[in-house]
Amino acid sequence: MLSFTQTAKALGNVHHDCFPVERISSLNRFLDIPHPANSTCLESIGGYHNRSFYSSYDFDSGTDNMFGTIAAVLLVFPVILVFTKAINRSRSTSKASVPCEAKSTAAESDKRDPPTLIRDTSCSKLWSNVPAAEPDKILGIAAKFRACTNPNKVNVCLGAYRDAFGKPWVLPTVKSAEQKLLNDETAYNKEYLPIEGDSEFLQAAIQFAYGEDSGIDLSKIAAIQTLSGTGACKIGGEFLKRYWKPKGNPNPTLYIPVPTWSNHWKIFQGCGLPTAGYRYYNSQTNKLDLAGLLEDLQNAPDESIILLHACAHNPTGCDPTDSQWQEIRALLKQKNHLCFFDSAYQGFASGDAERDAGAFRKAVNFGLPCLLAQSFAKNFGLYGERVGSLSIVCADTDQRDKVVSQLKAVVRPMYSSPPGHGSNIVKTILTDAKLAEQYKGECKIMADRIALMRTQLVERLAAVGSNHDWSHVRDQIGMFAYTGCSEEMCDALTNEYAIFLTRNGRISLAGLNEQNLDYVAIALHRVTQGKSIIG
């Protein structure tokens, strides 16, 4: 027979190991037994007793007699009753929380559908309904180029400048500006920019685009810093969706030139704007389709939104002449259309930033309502810095301030504020007279090399025996040449010669140099020989 102490300790250890602290604590209070708070009785995670509260008491007299046994039973019995009631109460609570239909048999329960609140949230099931997105055409081609092991491979797909050795070129003025920033600890830090961006950068960007002596009142220009030209198009699209609602055309369509940079469609459709194309390039002549362009803009409802490339049209490199621009402006004004200019190549197209801004500035001075998406990726070589701006011509400064406030309202929940490093570089170059002048020369170096590759490609094609008229390539401007090659020809260039280009026949002239020019000319001749490059 167990002694009194052994019996009490055994029971204490059992019930303390099986019940949570809160139940034991309340029971201790009921039995007026102090809780050993200063002992190691609490398991920090589970909250269970690890030692008996009886261990603090020495009831064992060393005498094993009947009185001790009876006393142990009398003491233990009430404890058992209390624990039994606690267990029953716990079971009743658990049963009350189970729906009535849970009383069905196990066999019936197996046949029932699981409750709707129970879901399989494992990684294998959670996103099983998400399809793979279509890869970006241009960036996808660049990835295939990197994976290609052909030693003769050529990348004429990506729209980024390369020097005569096929390497990226960081402009010397960019390096100088960065060093100047590093040396000026008081002016340069890594703090957040305001929602609208760096005001000094914006002032410099406006002057660069609109001109200081162009007759345009710069004080009426609403501007906001953006994530390059892509971000400018996006912010502009969101703004127009909210606020360009003419009475006669409350849900205006945005008309996009065909062809255009493929991302234009995704950006503006993503803003919820209705979109449609207008004819721009005639593949039968490899020239501007002016008649089709004017007809489509004439047929568009009044006060529609017309997307225009400020210079170096992407992908065709085919810009309207001055006289053609004059016809286009007259029709835009007659129809009260709103002009959304996308300027990605100012200075990079011709080597002269003033000349490249001419068509846009004339539209503003002509009284056309204008927005401008401005990028500093190509012309400053700041591809990865994402530097750009969106500007809107306003009637006065009061309207300007209101427009800026709404542009900020678009930006705030989207990305809050723009990055500052790239805009600091542009601002430093454009506001430093010496660096600004040096930059003009560097920009011309890039434009001249592109123009040289354009001319030499046409000459090499003739030299290898091509009978096609490639004059359209010679007459185009900017980074790209629109060759007229069909999708099948482009596939052959990639599959047979490891020349990577988009399937619309566009090639980036920046990817050409003396090391690969003959190879590309020979390949182009072979895939086009005896076939048409028009239509």
What topology does this entry show?
Layout lengths: L3 H15 L2 H11 L34 H31 L9 H6 L11 H4 L10 H11 L6 E2 L16 H12 L15 H12 L10 E7 H16 L10 E5 L4 H8 L4 E5 L1 E2 L4 E2 L1 H10 L5 E5 L12 H13 L3 E6 L9 H4 L1 H8 L4 E6 L1 H4 L6 E7 L3 H15 L9 H10 L2 H31 L7 H5 L4 E3 L4 H11 L1 E2 L5 E3 L8 H12 L7
Parallel strand pairs: 1-12, 3-4, 3-7, 7-8, 8-9
Antiparallel strand pairs: 2-10, 5-6, 9-10, 11-13
Helix pairs in contact: 1-3, 7-17, 7-18, 8-17, 9-10, 9-16, 11-12, 18-21, 20-21
Sheet of most strands: 7 strands, mixed
Please give the share of residues in helix. Answer: 40-55%
CATH topology of the domain at 229-316 and 324-345 and 358-375: Aspartate Aminotransferase, domain 2
The CATH architecture designation of the domain at 229-316 and 324-345 and 358-375 is 3-Layer(aba) Sandwich
Which class best fits the helix and strand makeup? alpha/beta
Radius of gyration: 38 Å
Strand content: 5-15%
Mean pLDDT: 84
Number of helices: 21
Total strands: the figure is: 13
User: What form results from the Cα inertia axes?
Assistant: globular
